Structure to design on (510 residues):
């Protein structure tokens, strides 16, 4: 008899609730087949069977709260049972891109494998097929990207579980699929012959370009899609990502370079513009991410009593300190010293004095956070996302800069997991990188505060009875007036201003 126990649930998580049992006593189970699903306040954890055999007894029923290493069930060892095709769920990987768990059936030319929708994450039950990088009949390598799914939070790449041939595509681009649903069928084996695709299958227009000598490096899905649309091969693009990975920006640069290299090539003559405005309009369906952004921002306006207060900060001292130490900082820590670490530190400092800005409303309660999980808003080709840097208040300047750089790169590549975008207690948005001089940021619910940074611009200032030119930045704090009073909001912004105009205050906790 083998015991099935609650696995390690993560840092600071000591208990979970049994959400769903996929098996009942007496059912046959295979090794690593999912037995049940546990829910914590942070993640959902699937519990696999440690052995093949029969589920003898369920000790903790659905709805029960269990601690780490608590007994969940017992399995009697025996002959391996085949994994079911309908109820089994994909086993989550440790990386943010979950791999599909194939179902296997013997065929005359090899093993027929079902390409399934992977686990999409906590509270996400469906996704939209965004892009197919392969079409029916194409030969595929193990772990090669087959398609990209888009949820309302993140993009998920689906790799091939084995080498072989993509036989049939069951869910075409634009189709909505559920977690655990079937995406396609492939035939395993290098020499497997591809059968004709089904009539209702919707193959992609062209396979994803592959660069010669780079078969072990997967390009960004957005780059593959753009190269396919522009009939550009990977050999024509220089990748700047890790290990030579081609990013969307690399493809755009290659297209721009080719246009500049051939100025004599004239664009084809445009057709006469029709008089009817409708004929000159283009209707494009909103992505799930854009729909979610629109819904959440409108919900924030409808729910919170949102108000914005403004101030300005003289960036002279921060810029001088940065210029003095940026080379030494880069040499020692391997990351550039930017402005975001100063603003993050200044906000953490101010949040300690004005904790209501770091709080949230839960029903009739106010939840005060004795930590700072800092959200850093980042613009991506598909929309705005807010990755969270956890415990930013206990991190050094270098650790903050490294975290921001890493999260930003993952955001641009569409590689952020949902866990990386949840649990933030306060947010910083830097509209200054786009040239914004002043704006009123919208709260990221359920948070009660968001700081808007803006463009640094030289302005004449009256200092000591004289007019001098100083690099100034407008700051905007949007806050939920249900929790934060005007005095608290103004105090917070003044503390941020003071810390930035005299960065030594941050070192002395003043």
């Amino acid at each position: 008899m083998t015991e099935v126990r609650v696995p390690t649930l993560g840092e600071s998580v000591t208990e979970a609730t049994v959400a769903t049992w996929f098996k009942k006593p007496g059912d046959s189970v295979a090794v690593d087949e999912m037995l049940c699903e546990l829910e914590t306040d942070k993640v959902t954890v699937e519990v696999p069977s440690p052995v093949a055999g029969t589920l003898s007894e369920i000790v903790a029923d659905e709805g029960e709260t269990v601690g780490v290493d608590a007994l969940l069930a017992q399995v009697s060892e025996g002959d391996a049972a085949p994994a079911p095709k309908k109820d089994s769920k994909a086993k989550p990987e440790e990386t943010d891109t979950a791999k599909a768990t194939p179902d296997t059936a013997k065929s005359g030319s090899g093993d027929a494998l079902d390409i399934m929708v992977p686990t999409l994450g906590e509270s996400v039950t469906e996704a939209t097929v965004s892009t197919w990088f392969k079409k029916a009949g194409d030969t595929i390598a193990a772990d090669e990207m087959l398609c990209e799914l888009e949820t309302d939070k993140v993009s998920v790449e689906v790799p091939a579980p084995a080498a072989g041939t993509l036989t049939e595509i069951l869910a075409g681009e634009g189709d909505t699929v559920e977690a655990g649903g079937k995406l396609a069928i492939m035939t395993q084996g290098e020499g497997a012959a591809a059968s004709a695709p089904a009539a209702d299958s919707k193959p992609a227009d062209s396979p994803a370009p592959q660069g010669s000598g780079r078969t072990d490096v997967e390009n960004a899905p957005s780059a593959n899609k753009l190269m396919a649309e522009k009939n550009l091969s990977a050999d024509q693009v220089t990748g700047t990502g890790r290990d030579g990975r081609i990013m969307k920006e690399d493809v755009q640069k290659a297209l721009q370079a080719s246009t500049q290299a051939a100025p004599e090539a004239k664009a084809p003559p445009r057709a006469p513009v029709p008089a009817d405005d409708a004929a000159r309009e283009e209707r494009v369906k909103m992505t799930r991410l854009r729909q979610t952004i629109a819904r959440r921002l409108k919900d924030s306006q409808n729910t919170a009593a949102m108000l914005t207060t403004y101030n300005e900060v003289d960036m002279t001292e921060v810029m001088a300190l940065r210029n003095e130490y940026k080379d030494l900082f880069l040499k020692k820590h391997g990351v550039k010293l930017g402005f975001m670490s100063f603003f993050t530190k200044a906000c953490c400092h101010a949040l300690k004095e004005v904790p209501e800005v770091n709080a949230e409303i839960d029903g009739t309660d106010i939840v005060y956070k004795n930590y700072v999980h800092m959200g850093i808003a980042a613009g991506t080709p598909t929309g705005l996302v807010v990755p969270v840097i956890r415990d930013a208040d206990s991190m050094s300047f270098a650790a903050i800069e490294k975290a921001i750089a890493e999260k930003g790169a993952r955001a641009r590549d569409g590689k952020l997991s949902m866990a990386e975008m949840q649990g933030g207690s306060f947010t910083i948005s830097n509209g200054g990188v786009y040239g914004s001089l002043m704006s009123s940021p919208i709260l990221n619910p359920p948070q009660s505060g968001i700081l808007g940074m803006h463009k640094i611009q030289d302005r004449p200032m009256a200092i000591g009875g004289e007019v001098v030119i100083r690099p100034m930045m407008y700051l905007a704090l949007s806050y939920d007036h249900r929790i934060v009073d005007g005095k608290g909001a103004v105090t917070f912004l003044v503390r941020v201003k003071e810390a930035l105009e005299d960065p030594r205050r941050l070192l002395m906790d003043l």
